[in-house]
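Can't attach files on this board, so I'm pasting raw text. These are the components:
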Amino acid sequence: MLLILVIAMALSAGILFPKDPLGLAGSPLIWPFRDARFPLGTDNSGRDIAAQIFHGARISLLIGLAAMTLAISIGVVLGALAGFYGGLADDVLMRITEAFQTLPNFLLLLMLVAVFGSTLTTVTIAIGLVSWQAPARLTRAEFLSLRTREFVQAGRTIGLGDATLIFREILPNALPPVIVYASVVMAVAILLESALAFLNLSDPNVASWGNLIGLGRGVLRSEWYVSAIPGVAILITVLAVSLVGQGLNDALNPRLRGR
Amino acid sequence: MRVLALAGRRLLSSIPTLLIILVGLFLLLQLAPGDTVDALVAQMGGGDQKMVEELRRFYGLDAPVAVQLGRYIWRLVQLDLGYSAIYGKPVVNVILERLPATLLLMGSALSFAFFAGIALGIIAARRVNKWPDTLISTLGLVFYATPSFWFGLMGIVVFAIRLAWLPSGGFETVGAGYTGLMRVLDIARYLVLPTLTLALIFLAIYLRIMRASMLEVLTLDFVRTARAKGVAEQAVIVRHVLRNALLPVVTLIGLQAGTMLGGSVVVESVFALPGLGRLAYESVVQRDLNTLLGIVFVSALLVISVNFMVDLIYARLDPRIS
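---
Top answer:
Structure tokens for the assembled complex are below.
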């Protein structure tokens, strides 16, 4: 339900607020509910907060989805290779995964952004690059337990190639827990982007919730609503994504229902 | 002592991991546009070509990448983290100055999240699907979804600006000259909000895992046996269930030590704490690559040592390991 609301916000952003959300709209720092033109007020430089929230929904969902897809793809491929072949491939891939896990992910993210710049694309890719470890471990564990099953042996007997075995036979069986975990990855991706934007290290040219919170920090003492409103938006979105994940989990693991 | 040997072996196996990290990061930073000298020159307001070249030679930046990498690793082996051009002193000193604040913050946040998470998880599991459980689980979900920096800002609005109970940022009262116990109390007052802010998301995770693992353990046979023997409910929970249910939570602490360090970057910059996280942020902005690499090295060491301790705790909790 909540997720539908956020998606609706993202979709209707262009219709409800056709103008550039970062364009000047009125006098700065109008409180919410004071002016009918700006239901959520305006920020330090007189930009419409409501418009920024709606357009921000787009950015957050976009970055969340894209980064999640990237992270899950990397994780699934590496995890599948490590779990399927075992031995040396497993050792090398798991060492690399461990290296990424030992490194604080936000520090790595800071570095990637510092090196490759902060446009929407680089930020998204950077977030994807720091979030694939857990899906990789999950996929590997599934593959380890599945690769000795009869259906895999049967596939091997009828002469299926490794690629077919991995992607057509084992992967569909290994996927459910990974799909559930994807919602966690997406939630974390949205939080990471907002934290980056808050630190002024994300793309400054898009209406991002984190940017707005960082901006509101300057007037926190008096006009705290500038920071408060986008924070609530982030909270609702992340909550929505995690609830969807929980729903998926319940649907895919009927045994755990009622907990 | 077999436990120590086991944990020691784990420690040894983290050396290649550390090496991968360092080489990877060094190569990554080579891709960065501009180096320390560029940043320095920009700070000085420009300089001529000859001086720039001289500076490059001084910091050893004119050598080929492979040579620089080799030099760097060799220095690390001697525990020399290099020299920070921006701060004008050895990186080790810069980091050591900032380390205590971060360690204090991480330690207090970790203990708060751990104990509060466990307590709430137990309460929720004991009253499963009744109102305390619903309340705690909902709170857990909301905490998990709250961006920490936003929670921190709102905490500042409520407790520092509106109620004026707590300071809004910094590490201690500057110039107050407190000593001994007064100083400890002073710092503690400054750390309340940052600790809560950093702990929030971990509290949510721990309570969720604790609740799930309590429920899991409660259904096991040995719990039924204990109850059948007539062991009091309190003793069943504390002596039989708790000890087993703690294992997944302890595992998580090790896995998330890195995440917590990353979180302190944001929290420290919200509360203007002079810690490692803010140093990392500053050195990214200032392109102080030596310092940045040093921080990464130190935080990787931190994560590895936390994992070492987790291994030891694990072995204490579960005598079958060793």
